[in-house]
Amino acid sequence: MKTWFKSGQPWIWLSGGAIGICLVAVIGLLLLIAVRGLSYFWPSDIQSIVYVEQDGSEKNIIAEIYEETEVEAAQLRQAGMSVEGDDLIPRYLLKTGNRELYGLDFRTVIQPGIKSISQPEDIVVLERTEWGNFYGYIEHLTIDGEKVDQDTWQALEKQLERADTIRESIHHVERSEIGAINYQLEKLRLKQRRYELEHALTPEVIADLEEEKAVLNQQYSVLMEKLGQLYTEIRKNTVTMREAEGTVKDINIANIVSALQPNQLGVFGKLGAYFGKIGEFLLDEPREANTEGGVFPAIFGTVMMVLLMAVVVTPFGVISAIYLREYAKQGPITRLIRISVINLAGVPSIVYGVFGLGFFVYFLGGSIDALFYPEALPAPTFGTPGLFWSSLTLALLTVPVVIVATEEGLARIPRAIREGSLALGATKAETLWRVVIPMSSPAMMTGLILAVARAAGEVAPLMLVGVVKLAPTLPLDGNFPFLHLDRKFMHLGFHIYDVGFQSPNVEAARPLVYATAFLLVLVIVLLNLAAISIRNRLREKYKALES
User: Fold this and answer.
1) Which of 309, 344, 436, 529 could make a disulfide contact with 400, Cβ separation 3.0–4.6 Å?
2) pLDDT, tens digit, for every residue of 235-245?
3) Is the backbone peptide bond immediately before 414 cis, with ω within 30 degrees of 0?
């Protein structure tokens, strides 16, 4: 036994066991997040329930069984419910929807109060742009002023397809065409203001500007008329729905995102609806205080911010590491700098956010506005939180990681290779540029991988330097300069925080927290896999030289 301990085998097994436990814990956590998040998109069957209230009255409920738990009968009696026995009583959380009628999306019932339960095939679930889902039966449709009460489901599907086409046209006119005109009008306004500041606003200049404005205003009027026609077209048809208690409500088809009869769907039908909902989640914009709809702006903002951060942090980190390793005189000052760099990696991220707000946003951004955008003042251009400052703040946060990893890579290059290059007549700079840096590039990619992994999940500093709850436009559009670094943006990490802790509808938002968290992990993994693939290729390319 003593010999076995001296051989070091116990520590090898202990290390292996610790790594195994960590892997199991990580995989288990990811599976939990994936199951909780992805199950949200499955089209569950809808139940028609006759429930006996505590006062003895019967109530009809159309709902999805959202969650099932068991509670002690004594606990229910303490809450004022009349139940018998001491056994565990099933309790159901029902998603009833119809928020404008009931006030809430959910209600709780207990098993003893359920008189009957069934699954009528003609129950319809309407997903709406506001007020959440509506559960009920189709009474009739009103199309072009005419009542349609035959083949109502087929008629509703056709109207929804038509509404989707019109909605796409509205989106294109609003975001692309009218957005471009508004952008040009704003540029003309700023151009006129600049002439005023330069005392060069002559009558001829004013005439030219007014002529350009007149052309743009004419185009704007034509587009607004077209937009009004599209809104009139999409809003003129309605579907009349009847909820469980018999209340009838007219719902404008323009406000319906999708309609489904889940009780009629088979396995393949539900699979199609399931992947369709996942597609909407990935590609659509958020609705209803971020508790419904998709997260595409947050995905785009996260990826764009990480890419910009990588573009900034890589050269600065690599150059700093090269200087510390190859050029700086190795002494007390260099060691102090190296220790300081390592300690910077342990500074809380919120401190970087405060620094970014003060230095990047207010100092640099305010100076840029004063020098290059005086016509826009007092409205800030770069003197306000935005995508560029968020990327710089995260680059500052992650640069110690890149420096340390790059230094380790430079230290691994054999001295004989450097001397061989110098012996062949190359200068130190040429040796560094053509031999040392290419061979240490895998270590640089390792530093970038670690930087991306940390930066993509940061939230605290971004709340101060650019991330918002809802961004009206993406930082990338068709207007010059196309990539607008001054705009605020959405981020998956902040989206998780907002939905999980700031949502007015906690129960409805909870599955989206899991789904968005799983998506954030996937985005980080994909970014890291891309970097790892590049690193492995570089490693294979220079493996022969290292050996």
Assistant:
1) 344
2) 888 999 999 88
3) no
- Sign for the CA dihedral angle at 118, 105, 250, 147 comes to negative
For residue 367, the tally of other CB atoms under 10 A from its CB is: 12
Q: Is 99 helix (H, G, I), strand (E, B) or coil?
A: helix
**pTM assigned to the model:** 0.88
Cβ-contact 459, 493 below 8 angstroms: yes
Whole-angstrom CA distances from 292 to 84, 100, 129, 288, 506 are 40, 16, 9, 6, 12
Minimum mean pLDDT range among 77-81, 110-114, 203-207, 482-486: 77-81
Nearest to 242 by CA among 137, 134, 344: 137
Contact (CB, 8 A) for 165 and 175: no
- The average pLDDT across 334-356 equals 87
Place of tokens 């709809």: 293
Residues 6+ apart with CB under 8 A from 108: 91, 92, 93, 94
Class in CATH terms, 296-471+479-546 = mainly alpha
pLDDT band at 530 (very low <50, low <70, confident <90, very high): confident
Going by pLDDT thresholds of 50, 70 and 90, the confidence category of residue 137 is very high
Residue 470 token pair:
């809802």
Residue 266's pLDDT is 87
Mean pLDDT of the 494-513 span:
82
* Whether pLDDT at 448 is above 90: no
pLDDT surpassing 80 at residue 545: no
Report the alpha-carbon distance of residue 161 to residue 259 in Å, rounded.
11
- Rounded to 10°, the helix 296-322/506-546 angle is 30
Which stretch of 69-73, 129-133, 175-179, 340-344 has the lowest confidence by average pLDDT?
A: 69-73
Across 79-237, the runs of DSSP E, i.e. the strands, are 88-95, 106-110, 114-118, 124-128, 133-143, 146-148
CB half-sphere exposure, 468, CA atoms < 13 A:
16
> What does the pLDDT read at residue 334?
84
d(CA 452, CA 405): 13
Distances in whole angstroms, Cα of residue 384 to Cα of each of 86, 183, 361: 61, 19, 6
Query: Kind and range of the H or E element at 49?
Result: strand 47-52
Q: Report how far residue 408's alpha carbon sits from residue 325's, in angstroms, rounded to the nearest whole number.
A: 9
Phi-psi region of 288 (alpha: psi -120 to 50; beta: other; left: phi over 0): left
The CA-CA-CA angle for residues 515, 518, 519, to 5°, reads 85
For tokens 């506005």, the residue is: 369
The C-alpha angle with vertex 544 and arms to 540 and 547, in degrees rounded to 5, equals: 120
